[in-house]
Amino acid sequence: MIVALAGGVGGSKLVLGLARVLPPGDLTVIVNTGDDEDFYGLRVCPDLDTVLYTLGSLVDPEQGWGLAEERFDTLEMLQRYGAATWFRLGNKDLATHLLRSLWLREGLRLTEVTGRFAAALGVATRILPMADAPVATRLMIAADDGAGERELAFQEYFVQRRWRDRVVAVRFAGIEQTAISREALEAIAAAKAIIFCPSNPVVSIEPILSVPGMRQAIRSARCPRVALSPIIGGEAVSGPAARLMADLGREPTAVGVARLYADVLSHFILDTRDAAQRPAVEKLGLQAGVLNTLMSSQEEKETLARALLRRIGVER
Ligand code: GDP
Ligand code: CA
Asked: From ligand 1's centre to the CA of 230, what distance in Å?
């Protein structure tokens, strides 16, 4: 059994590669839920759905999130009523949120709801939310034009304001009330390797590691624990990862990423473009490997997954 930690779009790329090269059912993904939010009374879990739709071969290939061949009639009607529509929810996508909200109201845990979706979509990979209880990532942004500092909900920062704000602090509201699930604990204990996908370190990986019990469980797993950097050549492949790290006073480089998780890792993979950072990574007490980590095509996802497993000594 291999365990991967992932956010949404970036994480799903490697998760898909791993799912394709490993025997069916040998992969468990623990997914960030800090981005989750309610829209129109429906529970929306963007990262879980990105992983689910990707593995179910339903994802919109252009965006890397949402469903392919989607329509937005419902959203357009909501707009006619004057409702906010900056968060894009497609007609088909809404079915997921309707059913999830119903099942959660009926008392199912988010882990169980996600398991039902995966089974129905024929996904053999186990998809686990990082926690069953809700967590809300919140970002304190710098004062602008005399207005004081204020806190944004994650989707407000990321989607509505397109991550233009300077962030001074990040917190994961509700995290202390969560606990690592039995399913996640069992997967980690049985893992032959734990892979930190090249997801956003601040808002995808950090919330997962902040679930009470998670860091400890990973640290005490007796298997290779390897992370890949979402930052290549000092820039994020996409999104605000590098900006967020710089805003928060962390070095926005691969080594900077390695430093964030060095306490729970045994290995760290650098991109070929960052090979010069190898000694700095080794100084953190980690085994460093250098691979091409840019995944543009399906083939590159599988090639990276294979090379990564080989590098950490996992036989397939
Ligand atoms: P999100 O939740 O949709 O933002 O997705 P994640 O947190 O899982 O991943 C976002 C991160 O993935 C960004 O910081 C990107 O820099 C990174 N990323 C995207 N594609 C690639 C890739 O092909 N290679 C690497 N190394 N990182 C990538
Ligand atoms: Ca996300």
From this structure: 5
pLDDT, one tens digit per residue, over 89-102 is 999 999 999 999 99
Q: Which atom of ligand 1 is nearest to the CA of 203?
A: 7
Backbone angle region of 168, left / alpha / beta, with phi > 0 → left and psi within -120 to 50 → alpha = alpha
Instruction: For residues 206 and 113, give the distance between their C-alpha atoms in angstroms, rounded to a whole number.
Output: 24
- Is the minimum distance from the CB of 228 to ligand 1 under 6 angstroms? yes
Q: Which one of 37, 48, 238 would you pick to mutate in the ligand 1 pocket, going by the greatest count of ligand atoms within 8 A of its CB?
A: 238
User: Is the CB of residue 269 below 6 angstroms from any atom belonging to ligand 1?
Assistant: no
Beta-sheet strand order (sheet of 167-173)? 150-153, 136-141, 167-173
Please, where are the H alpha helices in 106-181? 110-120, 154-155
Q: What is the pLDDT of residue 240?
A: 97
CA–centroid distance, residue 204 to ligand 2 (Å): 6
Pocket lining: 10 vs ligand 1, CB cutoff 6 Å? yes
Kindly report the protein residue whose alpha carbon is nearest to atom 22 of ligand 1.
Answer: 294
Give the atom of ligand 1 at the shortest distance from the alpha carbon of 230.
27
Task: Give per-residue pLDDT as tens, 30-75.
Answer: 999 999 999 999 999 999 999 999 999 999 999 999 999 999 999 9
Q: Average pLDDT of 186-190? A: 97
Span 96-142, pLDDT tens digits: 999 999 999 999 999 999 999 999 999 999 999 999 999 999 999 99
Candidates 165, 135, 172, 164; CA nearest to 150 is 165
Ordered domains of the chain (ranges, CATH)? 136-174 (no CATH), 177-311 (3.40.50.10680)
Q: Is 241 in the pocket of ligand 1 (CB under 6 A)?
A: yes
Cα 201 to its chain centre, rounded Å, is 9
pTM of the predicted model over 0.85:
yes
